[in-house]
Amino acid sequence: MTTETAAPAAKTGTDLETLQKLVTLPRRPQAVQWRSSARGIPGGLGPTDTQLLAVLEYPAADVQALLSTLKPTRLTAKVDDGGWLPEATREALKQATAYEAAPFFKSPLNQGTVFHLPKSNTFVLVLFTT
Fold first, then answer.
1. Any idea what DSSP says for residue 36?
2. Which of 52, 59, 49 is nearest to 23 (CA)?
3. How far apart are the first and last CA of the chain?
4. Helices marked H in 1-130
5. 3-state SS of the chain: helix, strand, coil percent to 5?
6. H runs (alpha helix) in 23-130
7. Rounded to whole angstroms, how far apart are CA atoms 100 and 8?
8. What angle do CA 67, 33, 82 make, to 5 degrees?
9. pTM here?
10. Which residue, 84, 104, 102, is CA-closest to 93?
11. Which SS3 state, helix, strand or coil, does residue 67 take?
12. How many C-beta atoms lie closer than 10 Å to residue 90's C-beta?
């Protein structure tokens, strides 16, 4: 007999203070939306693995300064958002430029990518534990 347990519910928010406890923000965004969820899969990732997905909106004056600190990668955006992101954001991610997310890392979220949506002041941050 086996017992399956449901994954904990995702936590979401729009408050900068909580997000700053989870990640490092190299520049202060003017608006945030975030979602923290379990990544564990039976027989795969452990039950304590998590993913953080954040949409960060920056003042126009900060976008170029932030981009100058990021290193581009060749990754393409394949974000498992569980249907959380608006459709327009999902569409924009298809054309987004990917960057290494190291400036945003805060233990235990030490893996991931940050995407700059084209012609916008918006970044999508995807971090996870390993």
1. E
2. 52
3. 30
4. 16-22, 60-67, 87-93
5. 20, 30, 50
6. 60-67, 87-93
7. 28
8. 105
9. 0.86
10. 84
11. helix
12. 15
**Angstrom distance (rounded) from CA 41 to CA 38:** 9
pLDDT in tens, 41-94: 655 555 668 899 999 999 999 999 999 999 999 877 678 788 899 999 999 999
Residue with tokens 């290193």: 71
Q: According to the model, what pLDDT value does residue 74 have?
A: 83
What dihedral do alpha carbons 105, 106, 111, 117 form, nearest 10°? -40
The type of residue at 37 is S
- HSE-CB at 45 with a 13 A cutoff on CA atoms is 13
Look-up of token digits 């600190």:
69
Alpha-carbon separation of residue 23 from 42, 50, 63, 94, 103 (angstroms): 27, 13, 18, 24, 9
26: tokens are 């190299």
